[in-house]
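input
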Amino acid sequence: MSDGPGHLRLADHGPALAGQIAAGLGAALALLGPFSDVIAGIGVAILIIGVVLAAPAGRQPGPVMAEWWSVLALAALATLIGYGLAFWLPAPGGVLLTIGAVTSLAAVFFGTPAQPE
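output
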């Protein structure tokens, strides 16, 4: 049952919310890169999976950020590129990974709806 075009059904809200939570967890793990490359890699993978799972809610505006999914997807891409780049150029790769992960966390925090629609 749909509330009209562009609205999520209640059944779609759960996976999208799980994707947003997974993306936030993945971004937080990616920030642990200076301590372990494996943990950062797992975090980047979880972040990418979370972005894919959150895609059905991408057109739904968050409480503060309307285009949160686009920001999240671009930040996840930056995190992925930074992770790979860090193996050859540690400083620029680490900076790009950090910027992408922090932006991902901000997109999840400001884009996750406080209440189901």
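quick obs: The chain has one domain: 10-111.
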